[in-house]
Amino acid sequence: MTRMTSTARPYLNRRLAEFGTTIFAEMSALAVRTGSINLGQGFPDTDGPEEVREAAVRALRDGRGNQYPPGPGIPELRSAIAEHQLRRYGLTYDPDTEVLVTAGATEAIAACLLALLEPGDEVIALEPYYDSYAASIAMAGGRRVPVTLRPHTDGGAGFRLDLDELRAAVTDRTRLLLINTPHNPTGTVLTRAELAAIAELAVDRDLLVVTDEVYEHLVFDDAEHVPLATFPGMRERTVTIGSAGKTFSFTGWKVGWVTASPGLVTAVRSAKQFLTYVSSGPFQYAVAEALALPDSYFDGFRRDMRTRRDILAEGLAQAGFEVFRTAGTYFITTDIRPLSEKDGFAFCRALPERAGVVAIPNAVFYDDREAGAPFVRFAFCKKEEVLREAAERLRRI
């Protein structure tokens, strides 16, 4: 006899009921089905440095990491992360007590929020935000409070943060600030002055801060990445998230990390150990070597991505989009209203058939879908010839 299941209660719990299949899965499947150029999901179409890939192969062959690595991450990688933070930013972390390796930045975000939030705690996040933020806050039982980045009055200048709005969003229930700079999807890089104001607010209101800095090496033109943990009073209250995927173009390896004070790392590790426990064994050895690459690699990587940004930005402008300035990441946000369009979802779902190109509607990154409705995101972490072909296709819509 087949056992009947109750239909009185949905299978998916109410915390996650608002989250269905991610837009990235939907649009990537649409790209495959239509044979379109995928400028939606943010992954490169070429691998990173050959010497880093060979380091992973060497680790596999030498039997390093093929079994469970240590829970906090292999010592070599934790030391390399600490050395990177010191060399780049003057931040000193103990690799044994203040560094934790995670299964990419997405797990780091989830582990931080699951560890640091109690049900009902409020989390202020910069909207539009990466979709895992909202889901992780929900899983932790928290309440998200968006502070929206808005286009500057000079549209080409990009999106900016209203510090007064941020201050006004803090209440007695606020537990932490979730900051992302360089910012996905808008390409905004918070300035020193903005970060100093955020730090002052966090100290004054005794808030924790989780800062997602996975695009730290992808800043362009006159923009500068400054870790929030470098500001007075922030070292002990900030959890900084980093990742190898975006910096070395090995997104499938899923190697991320957090750096923070011992108490914060212990808390995050307590949650992380019940998620993946450990991951990416041989790749951890390769990323340890990657973080020690000379400055010439990071400089060349940034120049290459800036060139790709400029190719796509010019093509989008010629196609009639309003193109907002991208100071960091590998995404460009556009406004489709100059094309006599106003619904980003409808536009992106029709674009593969119209032009053979896939993009992402920014509305998925907003609580207020109407606020994000006219904005569409394109990724430029693709080969130059692919970007030129995509730009040519878009000019024909």
Notable features of this structure?
seven-stranded mixed β-sheet, alpha/beta, single chain, 15% strand, 14 helices
Q: In words, what does this structure look like?
A:
- This protein is an alpha/beta fold and 397 residues long.
- The chain folds into 2 domains: 23-48 and 296-394, Alpha-Beta Complex (Aspartate Aminotransferase, domain 1), CATH 3.90.1150.10; 50-290, Aspartate Aminotransferase, domain 2.
- It has 14 helices and 15 strands.
- It has a 7-stranded mixed beta sheet with strand order 2-10-9-8-7-3-4, sandwiched between helices.
- Strand 11 and strand 12 form a beta hairpin.
- The protein is globular and about 55 Å long.
CATH level-4 homologous superfamily of the largest domain: Type I PLP-dependent aspartate aminotransferase-like (Major domain)
The CATH topology assignment of the largest domain is Aspartate Aminotransferase, domain 2
Q: What shape does the CA trace take?
A: globular
Strand content: 15-25%
Spatially, the strands of the biggest sheet line up as: 2-10-9-8-7-3-4
Give me the count of strands.
Answer: 15
How many distinct helices? 14
In a nutshell, what does this entry contain?
The protein has helices spanning 23-34, 50-61, 75-89, 104-116, 131-139, 163-169, 192-204, 245-248, 262-272, 281-290, 295-318, 344-355, 369-372, 384-394, and strands at residues 37-38, 99-102, 122-127, 143-148, 150-151, 159-160, 174-180, 208-212, 238-243, 256-259, 322-323, 331-335, 357-358, 360-361, 375-379. It is of the alpha/beta class. It has a seven-stranded mixed β-sheet with strand order 2-10-9-8-7-3-4, with helices on both faces.
